Amino acid sequence: MISLTGLRKVYPGRGGQQVVALDGIDLDVPRGGVHGIVGESGAGKSTLIRCLTALEQPTSGTVAIDGVALSGLGERELRRQRRRIGMVFQHVNLLDGRTAAQNVAYPLRVAGASRGERAERVRELLDLVGLAGRGDAYPSQLSGGQKQRVGIARALAAEPAVLLCDEPTSALDSDTTRQILGLIRDVRDRLGLTVLIITHEMGVVREVCDSVTLLDRGRVAQSGSIAEVAGDHGSRLARALVSLPPEPAAAGRVTLEVSFAGEVPTGRVLAAVAAVEDVDVSSGTIETLAGRRVGRLRVVVPSATAADAAARLRAVGVHVEEVA
Ligand SMILES: Nc1ncnc2c1ncn2[C@@H]1O[C@H](COP(=O)(O)OP(=O)(O)OP(=O)(O)O)[C@@H](O)[C@H]1O
């Protein structure tokens, strides 16, 4: 549904130096998928969004939505394609002097819908986002979460095929974040949308995404379904998805991080850990992510016997790394 091929964007920098913001991105998000894009500041996330909405022309490579490449479209066709992409932002930017209903109706007015059509569609949309009966409220009378609901309704007004969400919950508290992510999943389920979420919060990825891409200096550092990346134990995304607090080991001891996925029975792992001589478990988690059981344990062992302990643990099929 969303297909990026060899996407490259180079900006002219200061002193004639070039800034490579995107360096050959290949990415496919299937119809109905919720895909997360994560990466540090400057990784290229905003540039990616601007290329997807054709606000920015790629230096090379293609962006295609539903098989239609954006480059080479005429002005009219491009406008039509843009309407197939709804945008949800961190700061909703509602028109303060207009009611929630008028804000949602705005893109419908621009698209030339009649008054009757607008009223009916706005009612449906407010209902869809859980704001039935709140259409007459002004933005100042709405909570942050309710404003974001209005923003989502507005983004859905033109019946897009794709919803691009740029840090949709960064300004919200954790309860409201969970509700808004639940809503995004719900509209995906009901309307069959394809959703791309740019976020710096792994909690968002865990909660709502089916798949995820880590961008690093304009390149894809890692990409896959949540189950795949969570099971790729030593990887950056696996560590970020299932993270443990760092805790330095005492002198003469080292910490081994033991990671495993559903293929290895938890009981067997725990038995192997318990059998290690003079072992202590300092932290750990065993949970189900995208239907796959994943576990991570930090075990502290004497330095002198650490290599032997690691070998014994690996023998049961787990991934073991010494951590600082
Ligand atoms: N218009 C521009 N002109 C020159 N350089 C740019 C421009 N826009 C972005 N860049 C550079 O491209 C790189 C990627 O920037 P981008 O804003 O896409 O990253 P980001 O991952 O969205 O970061 P953040 O999370 O801070 O928004 C950075 O090095 C940035 O300085």
Strand residue content: 25-35%
Whole-number count of domains: 2
Here the CATH topology of the largest domain equals Rossmann fold
Strands of the widest sheet, in order across it, are 6-7-8-3-9-10
Q: Mind telling me the CATH class of the largest domain?
A: Alpha Beta
- Which class of secondary structure composition applies to the elements? alpha/beta
Oligomer: single chain
Shape: elongated
Note the gap between the termini: 42 Å
Helix coverage percent of residues? 25-40%
**What is the count of helical runs?**
11
Shape-level CATH architecture of the largest domain: 3-Layer(aba) Sandwich
Spell out the CATH superfamily of the largest domain: P-loop containing nucleotide triphosphate hydrolases
The whole-number mean of residue pLDDT values reads 93
Q: Which ions, cofactors or small ligands are bound in this entry?
A: adenosine-5'-triphosphate
Low-confidence stretches: none
